[in-house]
Predict the structure.
Amino acid sequence: MSAKGDRGDMRGRGTSQNSGQAEKQGRAADVPRRRRNRFGQTYTGPTYGALDLGTNNCRLLVARPTACGFKVVDAFSRIVRLGEGLSQSKCLSEAAMVRTIEALKVCTEKLARRNVKRSRLIATQACRVAHNGQEFIDRVYTETGLRIEVIDQETEARLAVAGSASLIEPDSKRALIFDIGGGSSELMWLSRTPNDCNIEHWVSLPVGVVTLAEQFDGRDVPLKKFNAMKDVLKPHLHEFASKIGFDESLVAHDGHMLGTSGTVTTLAGICMGLQKYDRNKVDGCWLTDTSIQQVTDHLMEMNYQDRVASPCIGPERADLVMAGCAILNSIIEKWPCSRVRVADRGLREGILTSLMESDGHKHAAPRPGNAHYAELDKKHPSDQSNKTQENPTNDR
C-alpha cells in the first residue's frame, strides 16, 4: 500500500457548503482569487480545505499550493470532545453534538470566506463507532451545510502517513509512524526506498487518550494506575508485532519512530520549556527515549491542577496527557527506539497533499520541519504561566 494517501473521488467535496454564500456574493464568487507571491507571480488556482473531526478535536486547514508544498492561509482548532462518554453509552451525547456543531459553523464560515472550491471533510473514530454517528452526520449537514465523510481505519492510516512522511529521515530504511488519537491510535510500519515510502502493515487500536482517560480517570494518575493503562495496550501491540514479524529495536534496522499527535507535541513543548506552545519550534524536532521518560516522570509528579497550569497542557488536556504518555511509553517499550521525531502535522496535511497531487501539483508535500533535538529544560514551566496557546494537533 502506497503512503501517498487515499485518492478516491474527492472532487466536488466542500462546494455545497459555500453555495449560499456564493449566491449572496454574486458571480464574482466563482472567479478564482488572484494573489501574488513574493516573486510577483499571480496565483489563480483553487484554494483547498481539509477538515478533521475527531473524538476530541475539530480542526480545519485552508491552504494554497506553492512550488515546494503549500501555504496555510487559514486554520481553526477547537477541542469539542465529541466522543465524551461514548465508550460507556455507545452514543454521541447531545451536549457533545451541540459543542461540535458550533465549532463546525465556524469552519463553514471560514471555508466560505476563503472561497474554498476543493476540500475534503472527514470524521474518524467517534462517528465510526457511535450508534447515532450517521444521524449526527446528517444533522451536521442540515445545520451547517457541511458534507462530512466518515472514513474507514485504512484511509485514516494512509492520510496520517501522507501528511507526515516528509519528516522521515532520507537515509532511514524503516519507520514506525504512530498517531495517538482520542478514540483510537494508528500504527503504520513503513519501508523506505530512495523515491518513496510504502506502508507494509498498519493497525488501528481501539484505544485513545479520551477512552483511556475515561476508563481510568485521567485527573488522578498514580504509578499503579499508569501501569494499568499501559497493560491495556500490551495485547494490542503484541498482536501487531506478531503481524509485522518485528519485536525488537528499530535502530538495528536503520529506522526511527515518527509521532503525529497531541501527546508527542505536548511532550516536546514541555521538554523545551516553552511558555506557550510554538509549532515552529516543535514540528520536526526530535525527542530521545531518555527525554520522553524524564518528562513522563515529571508529569507523574504533578497533580491535576499543576497540569492545568502548564502552558503546553492547559485545562483542556490536563486529564488526557497521562493517558497519552501511557500509550507512547507502551509503544517505545515494545519497539525500543532511541529517538522519536515529532510531527505537528497529520490527517489535514495528508488530505491537502492528496488533493493537490491529484490536481497535478507534484510537490504538494509539507516542508520538513526542524531537525534539532528537544533538550530537557530543567526549569519546567508548569507553574510559571496559566496562559495556553491551543495546540493545533491535540489528540483527535
Remarks:
- The mean pLDDT is 83.
- Residues 223-244 form the longest helix (22 residues).
- Residues 47 and 115 are 7 Å apart (CA to CA).
